[in-house]
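Amino Acid Chain and Its Fold in Token Form
===========================================
Purpose: to set a sequence beside its fold so the mapping can be learned.
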Amino acid sequence: MRAFYFDNIPGDQRLLHDSGNPVSNEILKSTGVLHWHIPTNQQDQIEVVAKERSYKNRDTITITKQGLGDLYEAKLKSFYEEHMHEDEEIRYILEGSGFFDVRAHPSDSWIRCQVDAGDLLVLPAGIYHRFTLDESNMIKALRLFKDEPKWTPINRGGVTDVNPYRVDYLKSLAVNG
């Protein structure tokens, strides 16, 4: 996985948008984002991480234009809306590639995380983020969950700023910062 600051130049969200300013692992970790690279031929290592982090459930999601058909553009747009979750978002990339953008705090800058096959990414509950495919227009990912599988985005707004999971996330940054 490679992380860098998003360039904020208008245009196709699927383009690289690399500002030329890399983001170090230390900065990424300071936002609560964790990542590993586990080659897809060593998926048994996913079980080790899942056990350590109490991930009990999983499913697989494939996002392609062919697979989503007429819903493709609407789905891609919804994934790219800035939002948070009340659970960690855990993705292990099996095939393809894409981008997870996360908000740095307190600057509110976008950090773009470029993920490819073998990347395992954990976004903490309460972090503002968004997702998009890259120009390959295809990703297949294993989604891991601590409890029952759910993916409920809460779009950023006044309500999210006082959401207990967001508040706890910001407190964790202050404690770890």
Summary: The first helix runs from residue 25 to 30. Helices lie at 25-30, 44-52, 65-68, 72-79, 158-161, 164-176.
